[in-house]
Amino acid sequence: MAAMASLQQALSSLSINGSSQKFHVCGLSSSSLMGVRVSMPRSFPEVSDGQRRGIITMVVRRWERKKCKPNSLPVWEKLHVKVGDTIKVIAGSDKGKISEITRVYRHNSKVLVKDVNLKTKHMKGKQEGESGQIVQIEAPIHSSNVMLYSKKEKVASRVGHKVLEDGRKVRYLLKTGEILDSPEDWKRIHKDRKKE
């Protein structure tokens, strides 16, 4: 309630200077109101009592809430890459590196790539007398910063989807036509996961 009252007070003490088209709130001259940029119209309509009145339009967007399901869980995004895909990093400090995806985070569209975006972490000693250590770990990067890569043709490409004659829906590279989702690849990925 107090915040609403202070906002109403600030808006009531708002006076518009017609020549410079800036406004003054509590004696401060600026083009923003409470830290938010305000766009002012070019001309102000005349009112019967001779005063000019302005219409203030502003978009308040301090933070954006993530889209959620009715049970408050985050909405999962569709990604163009899967675990085990060979990719090329197209943006960031590791631009140009070719590696493999080890994990996918669908709630925030990020991927974990082997030996890419390495961060230094200072680890404490777990047991008494054990000294700490400095470890390099992989941090997630956004999925828009990676592109699928063909090892045969040595080229990065966008992904396409098509249905084969046997009815399977598969992903393929648009530049080369190479099919990505083969049953052998999935068997290899599941075998690697069981080993871990």
UniProtKB/TrEMBL annotation:
Assigned GO CC terms: ribonucleoprotein complex; ribosome
Gene3D superfamilies listed in its UniProt record: 2.30.30.30
Keywords: Ribonucleoprotein, Ribosomal protein
Domain KOW: 80-107
Superkingdom classification of source: Eukaryota
InterPro entries, per database record: KOW, Rib_uL2_dom2, Ribosomal_uL24, Ribosomal_uL24_C, Ribosomal_uL24_KOW, Translation_prot_SH3-like_sf
HAMAP family, alphabetized: Ribosomal_uL24_B
Similarity field: Belongs to the universal ribosomal protein uL24 family.
Protein name in the entry: KOW domain-containing protein
Organism for this UniProt entry: Ceratopteris richardii (Triangle waterfern)
